């Protein structure tokens, strides 16, 4: 047998093991509301090849690929436990098991590591929480995809309705088509049908009512059987507490804005300050995509080194508020053709840092350049630190943060020397540290942070909504603090 034959046989064996994992992962998700992760990446509804590629990501931990032969025993051990709703990282289980010297069996070690999700400690699944989308543009449709994807057991978030202005003939058919196909993010994973007579879109069994209204005051959500719902405003039309409070209609309990909030509206970056929200807060903002991209790594750097001052320059994909061709625009420069120009513009991300990180005393400035790509941006974060360090030390720190810290869902880390913006379309992290581009000299560090300003941000929105709804389930093993 040749070397090539050995390699192919090994691949086929791993394929077979990955295939055996899929029904176990699916059953845990559907029946017990357990999301199986591999180093913070969900394995739910993933293909055989996706599972194998996700295992390969573990090269960043020990310099070698994590094999499905190592993680399968932990997955099998989980199926034998009386688990409650939770997120369980089998990659972390495998890694921590290797370093444990007590001689425990995989079954005993797993039971101990996830004890907080079993027996008297487990969370009992509820009826779920209703969600309404007000607006159905770029972010609205991606948030819809995520809500549908996560509906799983039916105990979590349930997308019940979208509210839009009437758009004429076949309006609902056209909106369903935009949900079904996306030029950047590809096909919807599942099936979508339309019931025009009842103004309903059915996506993977989720019946989503399409409500037509020109103003929040026109809607009584209880008339559609919606109660205690979280409304996600994707329009950005209202930014302050007074305007957003108009959404607090019958059936709506909380309002989440997918844009920076003004005045006393809390700007929340999940992973950084979501736990500061008061339970009775009804109005909140998820800040901007750029704020979500820079605040987690900024916190990680400040916690370790201290930050005295900083500047962020964002090279940002063009957005829907720009013109395709030169035309009038209320903002300076944004009236010039987005696909033909680099456009200098303002960003509120730097000033928003103070809301998300009130303990950070450093002055952060910022500016932005819109460039002719439709998605994925990069933030260049230039920091003066409180002490000198080295490039190797900063790389090790950010790698560890991305893998084992409470910020591991927000910060990703990549070492690929040929990575470009399109490689990060669909990333679920708030930002990705480009290790090859990092520069450190003395007390100065320059971080290059990629981010999918559409999908990565939408994932952050969902995490905030899960938190305020009470369906943000604990992760095991618990990340290092």
UniProtKB/TrEMBL annotation:
PROSITE patterns in the record: GAPDH
Segment forming the signal sequence: none
InterPro entries (alphabetical): GlycerAld/Erythrose_P_DH, GlycerAld_3-P_DH_AS, GlycerAld_3-P_DH_cat, GlycerAld_3-P_DH_NAD(P)-bd, Glyceraldehyde-3-P_DH_1, NAD(P)-bd_dom_sf
Record flagged with keyword Hydrolase: no
Top-level taxon: Bacteria
E.C. no: 1.2.1.-
Record SUPFAM superfamilies: Glyceraldehyde-3-phosphate dehydrogenase-like, C-terminal domain (SSF55347), NAD(P)-binding Rossmann-fold domains (SSF51735)
CDD domains: GAPDH_I_N (cd05214)
Matches recorded under Pfam families: Gp_dh_C, Gp_dh_N
Domain Glyceraldehyde 3-phosphate dehydrogenase NAD(P) binding: 129-289
MF GO annotations: glyceraldehyde-3-phosphate dehydrogenase (NAD+) (phosphorylating) activity; NAD binding; NADP binding
EC top class named in words: oxidoreductase
Alphabetical UniProt keywords: Nucleotide-binding, Oxidoreductase
Keyword Plastid: no
GO BP term, pick one: glucose metabolic process
Family: Belongs to the glyceraldehyde-3-phosphate dehydrogenase family.
Alphabetical list of NCBIfam families matching this protein: GAPDH-I, PRK08289.1
Record-given protein name: Glyceraldehyde-3-phosphate dehydrogenase
Biological source species: Streptomyces viridochromogenes
Organism ancestry: Bacteria, Bacillati, Actinomycetota, Actinomycetes, Kitasatosporales
């Amino acid at each position: 047998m040749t070397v090539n034959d050995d390699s192919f046989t090994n691949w086929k064996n791993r394929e077979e093991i990955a295939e055996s994992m899929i029904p176990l992962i699916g059953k845990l998700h559907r029946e017990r509301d357990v999301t199986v992760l591999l180093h913070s990446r969900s394995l739910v509804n993933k293909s055989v090849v996706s599972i194998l590629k996700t295992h390969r990501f573990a090269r960043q931990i020990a310099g070698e690929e994590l094999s499905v032969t190592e993680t399968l025993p932990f997955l099998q051990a989980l199926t034998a436990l009386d688990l409650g709703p939770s997120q369980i990282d089998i990659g972390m289980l495998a890694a921590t098991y290797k370093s444990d010297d007590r001689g425990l069996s995989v079954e005993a070690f797993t039971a101990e590591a996830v004890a907080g999700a079993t027996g008297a400690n487990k969370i009992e699944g509820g009826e779920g929480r209703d969600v309404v989308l007000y607006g159905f543009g770029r972010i609205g449709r991606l948030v819809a995809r995520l809500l549908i994807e996560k509906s799983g057991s039916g105990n979590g978030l349930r997308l019940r309705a979208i509210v839009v202005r009437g758009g004429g003939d076949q309006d609902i058919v056209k909106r369903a088509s935009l949900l079904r196909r996306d030029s950047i993010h590809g096909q919807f994973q599942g099936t979508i049908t339309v019931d025009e007579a009842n103004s309903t879109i059915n996506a993977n069994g989720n019946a989503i009512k399409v409500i037509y209204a020109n103003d929040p005051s026109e809607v009584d959500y209880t008339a559609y059987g919606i109660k205690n719902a979280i409304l996600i405003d994707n329009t950005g039309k209202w930014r302050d507490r007074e305007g957003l409070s108009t959404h607090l209609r019958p059936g709506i309990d909380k309002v989440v804005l997918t844009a920076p909030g003004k005045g006393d509206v809390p700007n929340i970056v999940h992973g950084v300050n979501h736990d500061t929200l008061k339970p009775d807060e009804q109005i909140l903002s998820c800040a901007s995509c750029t704020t979500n991209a820079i605040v987690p790594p900024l916190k990680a750097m400040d916690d370790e080194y201290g930050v005295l001052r900083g500047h962020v320059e964002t090279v940002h994909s063009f957005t829907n508020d720009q013109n395709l061709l030169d035309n009038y625009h209320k903002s300076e420069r944004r009236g010039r053709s987005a696909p033909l120009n680099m456009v200098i513009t303002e960003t509120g991300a730097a000033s928003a840092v103070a809301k998300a990180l009130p303990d950070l005393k450093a002055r952060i400035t910022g500016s932005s350049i819109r460039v002719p790509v439709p998605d994925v941006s990069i933030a260049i974060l230039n920091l003066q630190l409180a002490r000198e360090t080295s490039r190797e030390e900063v790389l090790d720190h950010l790698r560890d943060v991305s893998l084992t810290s409470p910020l591991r869902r927000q910060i990703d880390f990549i070492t690929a020397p040929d990575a470009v913006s399109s490689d990060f379309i669909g990333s679920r992290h708030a930002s990705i540290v480009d290790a090859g581009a990092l520069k450190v000299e003395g007390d100065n560090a320059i971080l290059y942070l990629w981010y999918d300003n559409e999908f990565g941000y939408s994932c952050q929105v969902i995490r905030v909504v899960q938190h305020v709804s009470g369906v943000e389930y604990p992760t095991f093993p618990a990340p290092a603090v």
